[in-house]
Amino acid sequence: MKLAALAAASVTLVLASSAGAATRHVVETAAAGTVRADFAYDCCFANLHLTISRNGSVLLDEAIQPPIRDEEIQPARYFAHKKSLAVRDLDGGGEPEVMLDLYTGGAHCCWYTEVYHYSAAGNSYVLTTHGWGNVEYRLSDLDHDGLPELVSGDDRFAYIFTDFAGSSFPLQIWHYRGAFDDVTRRFPARIRRDARRQWHWALAKPTRTDNRGYLAAWTADRCLLRHCAAAFKRLDLLRRRGQIAKGWDRTPRRYLRHLRRFLHRTGYLR
User: Fold this and answer.
1) pLDDT tens, 200-233?
2) φ/ψ (deg, to 5) at 188
3) What b/e sequence results for 36-75 when a residue is b if at least 16 CB atoms lie within 10 Å of its CB, and e otherwise?
4) Is 208 helix (H, G, I), strand (E, B) or coil?
5) 50: which of 155, 206, 253, 269 lies 20 to 30 Å off by Cα?
6) Cα–Cα distance, 51 to 36 (Å, whole number)
7) Nearest to 127 by CA among 37, 44, 41, 4
8) Using an 8 Å Cβ cutoff, are 8 and 101 in contact?
């Protein structure tokens, strides 16, 4: 039987004095069924620590380390005034996973999620980390099966055809089933919706100076729907009409060659 949704969640703020200065200590708590997680840290942002207990016994009690040594990390949702910790059944196994969302700082990068999965064999928690890069994600039960999908965008499109401000990201949807699996192609209606948005952004303003990132994301969406050939014909028509901006590839023709190679390398063009 699937566990009920999040049963308890709270954030506790504790002010501790250090050399006469107040330090804010934050504890985020989430629980479902017999599993409880506590994520504690000092603001801003030190001594990150995660504790997971199951049936009243502490099975994990450790400091959270950055993915790269000496890199700074912080709770991903802190500045949005939301919790970065959740406990919920992601894979339908009846045992909730612990999710911790973290951020490496900077203008827009990088977001990643740590998922702790209970292993009955070792009576312990096994960690899986998934990087989102410049793109956040949201949980949504798209197929109404009671389990969430993780809806995001493909970060591999950042900076490839233009700068970050002009980059756009085709839809990417994931399942967690002990590991993260890309299941985007299972949701064609969502892909079509994203393709319409990308096309609109690319051509909404006839005077747009940089539409290469949006056109690349639109083409990727169309390739996911197995319409790659038709998409490139349409792009070539835009090229002949002068509706593809010049940029890092210097000419629209070179841009289209670059795009085709990139989509082949990333698995969109098969």
Assistant:
1) 999 876 545 789 999 999 999 999 999 999 999 9
2) -60, -35
3) bbbbbbbeebeebebbbbbeeeebbeeebeeeeeeeebbb
4) coil
5) 155
6) 8
7) 37
8) no
CB 256 within 8 A of CB 235: yes
Q: SS3 for 53-95, per residue?
A: EECCEEEEEEECCCCCCCCCCEECCHHHCCCCEEEECCCCCCC
* Rounded alpha-carbon distances, angstroms, from residue 160 to 31, 86, 216: 41, 33, 9
Please give the pLDDT value at position 6.
35
Cα of 140 vs its chain's centroid, Å: 13
Residue 249: strand, helix, or coil: coil
Q: Among 135, 97, 112, 114, which Cα is nearest to 49's?
A: 114
**Tens-digit pLDDT profile for residues 40-70:** 998 878 889 999 999 999 999 999 988 777 6
* Residue 174 to residue 201: CA distance in whole angstroms: 24
In the structure encoding, which two tokens stand for residue 165, read together? Answer: 């401000």
Give me 1's structure tokens.
Answer: 């039987």
Residue ranges of the chain whose pLDDT lies below 70:
1-23, 70, 205-208
DSSP string, 110-175: -EEEEEEEEETTTTEEEEEEEEEET---EEE-TT-SSS-EEEEE-GGGTTTSS-GGG----EEEEE
Contacts of 56 (CB under 8 A, 6+ apart): 34
Number of Cβ within a 10 Å radius of residue 241? 8
C-beta separation of 6 from 86 below 8 A: yes
